[in-house]
């Protein structure tokens, strides 16, 4: 797994629109989008609970995917999309998101970067992002300079949808990585969204899926 393109700094602030919904717009549309984004944020952080420093950081795929790195990456990505894009830069410099940063610097935590530091950073990014969303209308214009020129001009609504997709995608990665670490599974805290928690049921299911794969392969 590789990170997205590094985000250039020093972006000009676009004109911003006040929080005025256009005629016929769903007055709850923004709240719905915010709820889906917050659900993904919380699910991602939940996957870190109860793990040692090693298990939080160790790579579980050939491309180095790890839990704390996923959080670090999403924090930096959200700071750009719901901050810089709308002329409201996050107040803390994130060197791993700079244009000249080492490839994949945002996808792993150095020994000097503590779990608490990265979790706190992500929560502060939430608050900064939420302030942007609260201040602007869904149709407020923004500009994503690292996108293709034909797509750079965006609205807050587009970027909220983008960040929902981005965050849920990486929360899904975290689902799999956490299961590889210690077998823990579940959609979010308080809602596993799974048919059974019995190990015997899952072993039977696994064996059935494996047998089907072998049968299909044999034609």
Describe this structure in words.
The chain is an all-alpha fold and 219 residues long. The chain has a single domain (29-194), classed as Up-down Bundle (Four Helix Bundle (Hemerythrin (Met), subunit A)). 48% of the residues lie in helices and 3% in strands. The chain has 6 helices and 2 strands; from the N terminus they run ααααββαα. It has helices at 29-46, 53-57, 67-81, 115-135, 156-182, 199-217, and strands spanning 141-143, 153-155. Strands 1-2 form a two-stranded antiparallel sheet. The longest helix has 27 residues, at 156-182. It is globular and about 55 Å long. The two termini are 32 Å apart. 27% of the residues are buried. The model is unreliable at 2-6 and 8-19 (pLDDT under 50). InterPro entries: DinB/YfiT-like, MST-like. Residues 1-28 are annotated as: Disordered.
């Amino acid at each position: 797994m590789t990170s997205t393109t590094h985000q250039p700094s020093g972006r000009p602030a676009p004109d911003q629109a006040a929080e005025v919904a256009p005629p016929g717009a769903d007055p709850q549309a923004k709240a719905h989008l915010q709820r889906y984004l917050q659900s993904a944020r919380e699910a991602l952080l939940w996957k870190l609970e109860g793990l040692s420093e090693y298990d939080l950081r160790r790579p579980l795929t050939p491309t180095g995917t790890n839990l704390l790195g996923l959080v670090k990456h999403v924090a930096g990505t959200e700071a750009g999309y719901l901050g810089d894009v709308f002329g409201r830069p996050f107040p803390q410099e994130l060197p791993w998101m700079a244009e000249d940063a080492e490839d994949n610097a945002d996808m792993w935590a150095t020994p000097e970067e503590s779990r608490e530091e990265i979790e706190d950073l992500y929560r502060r990014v939430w608050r900064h992002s939420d302030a942007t969303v609260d201040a602007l209308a869904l149709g407020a214009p923004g500009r994503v300079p690292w996108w293709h020129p034909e797509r750079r001009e965006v609205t807050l609504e587009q970027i909220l949808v983008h960040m929902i997709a981005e965050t849920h995608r990486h929360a899904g990665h975290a689902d799999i990585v956490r299961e590889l670490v210690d077998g823990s599974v579940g959609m979010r805290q308080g809602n596993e969204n799974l048919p059974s928690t019995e190990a015997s049921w899952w072993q039977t299911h696994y064996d059935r899926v494996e047998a089907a794969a072998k049968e299909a392969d044999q034609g």
